[in-house]
Please model this.
Amino acid sequence: MKTILLKVVFLFLGLINFTNAQPLLWGTENGSGTLKAGTIYSVPLGGGTPTVQYEFQTIYSRSPSFSDLAEGVNDEFWGMTTNSIFTYSAITGNYKLESLIGAGGSLYKASNGKIYGVGVGGFIIEIDPVSKSINPKLVFATSLSGKLFEYTPGKLIGVAGSDIFEYDYVANTVVVKKTLTTQTGYDCYGSAVKAPNGKIYFLFNDGGASAGTVCEYDAATGGITVVYVFLSGTGSLGCRPRGSLTVGSNGLLYGLAGDGGPTGSHGTIFSIDPSTGAYNMLHSFSNSINGIQPWGSLTLSPNGLLYGFCYYGGAYNYGTLFSFNTFSNQFTKVIDLNDFTGRSPNFGNLMVASTGNMYVMFTAGNLAGKGGLYEFDYANGNLIPRVNFNTGLEGNHPAGKLFVAPNNKIYSTT
Model:
């Protein structure tokens, strides 16, 4: 196996703290503030005017775009911009420049408590949030796509260029586990997932028949199997996936194909049976009024339904929010997105908090047309605005995903 050298993409996020007497939402926004270099802001969870807590500076720290914060210790959070690493305390409101190392990458907190940064900038870094030491670990000679995840204690897996790689943070080694080819597929927009059979599955946007593939990776043997080859044009059951697979309550893997399908090439919902490798198209998007071009990933709700977004279509052609029942294979349009509900989820997904509430960030729409954070009331099919981005100073146009951490705080990427 060959060793490789990696790159760093950066992150940017927000959080909701449900434990305070008066909960606040915290977030970061790219391109906002008086210097247009980004801001850190807070806003009451129940709604209200955002308060700018810190403005990124054009010289040392700016543009925390498409990035995730990682939680350190004592309510302190770490983030990366294009040219810096910083910490922000949710308790004191203090921002501190920790390093002029920057990459525009993705941070991931591993089970050893350390935070690892990777991306297109060319290296892996390790952050100790207790001692605040920042250690460059390895340099890559290729770009990174998708995200890392810890598939087994001590080992992270991801995609760099045309390689699936494993980073052992104990031994500080990177090993190429498999070189991707046109046949296996490449260009990963989302994360790998671990299925109930213990195998790891990737969705690739390109390769195969030039329309993407589903691949199964066996970490024990290093073998990769093409489970399904997406086709475009005649005979297509979906193609060009732009997200991750989702493990359903029945053990099947569910995904969205952003294009293709037998009814107008507007995308499909599909399942993969990891025990047999069988691909099954479950729904073909054909009617623009119900939404077309499903981008991103599906989210399993507490009510057992899968929820997702179409980027286009609907009553206003700003997309739709839909549900899918995996037992009856019933598709239902839930909401037509518009300038008032919020629109343009891009590759973002609904996320489920520990409370059972669901949240999503929209990059556009809302009162000022600059997006916002919404709670999705799946019981009644309503989107409830929680944060309205109104001015450049407060931040606007959030463009990323939300996820919940073990500390019951919600993070969003922009």
